[in-house]
């Protein structure tokens, strides 16, 4: 076993790049070009509908009307402008943490540490805000918080990259385990050094000052973090598809040996990819505390790192597609709140829905089945 | 006595990690990584608990937990082997599915007491000084785990079935040439791996925590996947890995109980940190121990 990267990963990302077979006539060619798209969309719809039907079945087993449950999910996620706003709010950290999966994936690396990197980013942002202590106006305060969040997130992800580079420790495993450590660091900060003396039963930190809050852009909830997420998605798309660095990451992810022979500094590229990813997830943590929560609690962003991982796969690691993929899974999270209120079922139940959509997409929505290894 | 308490706790808490680690050894020996181990455990924990309550028989519960783990293992196998989905992503999706399903179906069982699988002291042996409480005063599933590790080692390295499993992970084309389908062998290995993870979950809820709560496995299944590397894909070394992790938990709890100054939240991070550190220390030596087919996924 060598330190080579995963080839199946590269294969799945390139499914739409299947070369068209030589064929007759322009019209036929055009039709052929559209066929995969049509079947693709068909499979997508089938995956989605199938997921909702199966979910309804599970809900029915719990003795709750599936129609009522699905209605609650839909209405709370997309029922009115407030609902759509809430979905966009949930999608914001998901987009950033999904990009944190996408960038390393291009280099053939698995970042399953979104959970921890989000939390570290949130911690970094709150730490920066506490240091500035309201002495600086809003724009520089937010800039410093963003930088701090990106730095802490990048450091957390970079740790896994360095361990891989120096000791050959598998980064999927280390990023995964680091999530639990990050969660405990957050809990420690919230319960001990940063605890708001006013908080009694449920621990939380002091509320952020006004300069440290991201402005609300639309409705009551949608904050400037959404813009950060969209800009980040476009920037990552540009970085991966239009720059030399992105090209090199792609070569490394496709064939590490080729990258090495081409004289690329593989270690630096891998570390860079992971750290850029970690920085993006860190920013995601910052948008959540500065845009939504206004303080740290031990329960913030639980499961978001994993949901973001799924978003990146749902988007097949395409940076721009993560925007809608994260919105879909963010909407499902919001649907969980609605489900809980309307039916009394646990909000976590909607994770079934996310998982089923992903199963459909991972296993069935790909054009063509590849031959066995 | 600190050492005795720590080791007793290590064995008692280690069972629920040992089973999934053994399961993942089998699965990875056949060439399939299963991060869904976490989900299989969770499903096993709830199913065993719920069936234990509903039927009044904790043993029926355990059997149901094993089945639940196996079913999720089968789903993982189908996705990865038949549908050729990426194993890492699929494993996380399987875990996500289990998180959702256990949240949905486990809600009513939170806080209900199960007819617990209590410790059965082995007459005579349990009175031994030091070793007695550490090894011979546990629940039946823990005793079973003492036998399971060597038994799995024997199957893997001394039987035809084990040879097939290892061949599926190392040289599937050779297996194919001998007329055995590598896919079938892998299916079997992943399902057995899921079943063992379910068994670990069952032990966790019915004999260790005696409780069900959402997300109660808190990464034990993921730790099991990490420990397989520590164990160099060897069932006997898996025992050491499982007790190392649970020993770190047990030590940390003992230190808390003895009023250590360090924050309990930071102490709780010690077991995870321990696993990362041993993996780092061993990574270099483990690189060539991995089954060949895994190299493409778990480099």
Radius of gyration of chain A: 22 Å
Any idea of the CATH class of chain A?
Answer: Mainly Alpha
Determine the mean pLDDT of chain A: 89
Q: Which bin fits the share of residues in helices of chain B? A: over 70%
What oligomeric arrangement do these chains adopt? heterodimer
Write up this protein.
The complex is a heterodimer of chains A (373) and B (299). Chain A has 373 residues and is mostly helical. Chain A has one domain: ABC transporter involved in vitamin B12 uptake, BtuC. Chain A is built from 14 helices and two strands, in the order αααααααββααααααα. Chain A has a two-stranded antiparallel ribbon. In chain A, β1 and β2 form a beta hairpin. In chain A, α4 packs across α5. The longest helix of chain A is centred in the N-terminal third of the chain and has 36 residues, at 26-61. Chain A is globular. Chain A starts with 6 loop residues before the first helix and ends in a 9-residue tail after the last helix. Residues 1-24 and 367-373 of chain A have low confidence and may be disordered. In chain B, α2 runs parallel beside α4, α2 crosses α9 (182-208) and α6 crosses α7 (160-170). Chain B has one domain: ABC transporter involved in vitamin B12 uptake, BtuC (Orthogonal Bundle), CATH 1.10.3470. Chain B is globular, with a radius of gyration of 19 Å. Chain B is mainly alpha-helical and 299 residues long. Chain B has helices spanning 2-29, 37-55, 58-82, 87-106, 131-135, 140-158, 160-170, 172-177, 182-208, 220-230, 235-257, 264-268, 270-286; strands at residues 120-121, 137-138. Chain B has a two-stranded antiparallel sheet with strand order 1-2. Chains A and B meet through α1, α2, α7, α12 and α14 of A and α3, α4, α10, α12 and α13 of B.
């Amino acid at each position: 076993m060598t330190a080579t990267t995963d080839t199946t990963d590269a294969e799945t990302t390139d499914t739409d790049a299947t070369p068209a077979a030589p064929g007759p006539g322009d019209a036929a060619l055009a039709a052929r070009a559209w066929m995969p798209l049509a079947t693709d969309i068909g499979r997508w719809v089938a995956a989605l509908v199938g997921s909702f039907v199966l979910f309804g079945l599970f809900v029915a087993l719990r003795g709750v009307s599936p129609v009522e449950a699905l209605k609650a999910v839909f209405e709370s996620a997309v029922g009115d402008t407030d609902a759509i706003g809430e979905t966009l709010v949930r999608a914001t950290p998901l987009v950033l943490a999904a990009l944190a999966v996408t960038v390393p994936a291009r280099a053939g690396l698995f970042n399953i540490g979104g959970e921890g990197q989000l939390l570290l980013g949130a911690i970094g942002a709150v730490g920066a805000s506490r240091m500035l202590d309201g002495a600086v106006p809003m724009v520089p305060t937010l800039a410093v918080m963003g930088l701090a969040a990106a730095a802490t997130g990048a450091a957390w992800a970079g740790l896994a990259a360095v361990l891989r580079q120096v000791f050959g420790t598998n980064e999927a495993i280390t990023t995964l385990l680091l999530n639990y450590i990050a969660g405990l660091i957050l809990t420690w900060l919230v319960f001990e050094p940063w605890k708001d003396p006013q908080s009694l039963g449920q621990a939380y930190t002091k509320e952020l000052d006004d300069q440290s809050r991201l402005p609300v852009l639309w409705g009551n909830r949608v904050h400037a973090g959404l813009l950060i997420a969209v800009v980040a998605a476009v920037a990552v798309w540009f970085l991966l598809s239009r720059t030399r660095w992105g090209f090199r990451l792609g070569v490394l992810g496709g064939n590490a040996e080729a990258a090495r022979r081409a004289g690329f500094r593989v270690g630096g590229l891998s570390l860079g990819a992971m750290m850029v990813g970690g920085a993006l997830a860190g920013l995601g943590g910052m948008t959540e505390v500065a845009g939504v929560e206004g303080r740290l609690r031990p329960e913030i962003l639980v499961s978001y790192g994993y949901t973001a991982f799924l978003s990146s796969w749902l988007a097949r690691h395409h940076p721009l597609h993560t925007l809608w993929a994260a919105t879909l899974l963010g909407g499902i999270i919001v649907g969980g709140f609605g489900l809980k209120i309307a039916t009394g079922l646990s909000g976590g139940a909607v994770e079934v829905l996310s998982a089923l959509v992903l199963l459909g997409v991972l296993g069935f929505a790909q054009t063509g089945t590849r031959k066995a290894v | 006595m600190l050492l005795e308490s720590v080791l007793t706790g290590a064995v008692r808490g280690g069972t629920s990690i040992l089973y999934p680690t053994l399961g993942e050894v089998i699965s990875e020996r056949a060439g399939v990584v299963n991060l869904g181990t976490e989900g299989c455990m969770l499903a096993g924990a709830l199913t065993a608990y719920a069936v234990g309550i509903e039927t009044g028989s904790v043993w029926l519960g355990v059997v149901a937990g094993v089945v639940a783990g196996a079913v999720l293992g089968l789903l993982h196998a189908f996705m990865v082997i038949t549908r050729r989905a990426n194993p890492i992503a699929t494993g996380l999706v399987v875990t996500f599915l289990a998180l959702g399903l256990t949240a949905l179906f486990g809600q009513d069982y939170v806080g209900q007491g199960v007819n617990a699988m209590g410790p059965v002291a082995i007459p005579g042996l349990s009175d031994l000084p030091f070793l007695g409480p550490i090894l011979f005063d546990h629940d039946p599933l823990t005793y079973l785990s003492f036998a399971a590790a060597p038994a799995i080692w024997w199957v893997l390295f001394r039987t035809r079935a084990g040879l097939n499993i290892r061949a599926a992970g190392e040289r599937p084309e050779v297996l194919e040439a001998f007329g055995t389908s590598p896919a079938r062998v892998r299916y079997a290995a992943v399902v057995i791996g899921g079943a063992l993870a379910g068994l670990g979950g069952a032990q966790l809820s019915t004999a260790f925590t005696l409780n069900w709560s959402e997300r109660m496995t808190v990464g034990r299944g993921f730790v099991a996947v990490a420990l397989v590397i520590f164990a160099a894909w060897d069932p006997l070394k898996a025992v050491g890995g499982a007790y190392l992790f649970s020993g770190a938990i047990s030590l940390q709890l003992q230190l808390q109980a003895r009023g250590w100054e360090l924050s309990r939240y930071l102490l709780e991070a010690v077991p995870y940190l321990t696993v990362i550190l041993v993996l780092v220390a061993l990574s270099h030596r483990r690189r060539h121990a991995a089954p060949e087919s895994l190299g493409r996924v778990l480099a």
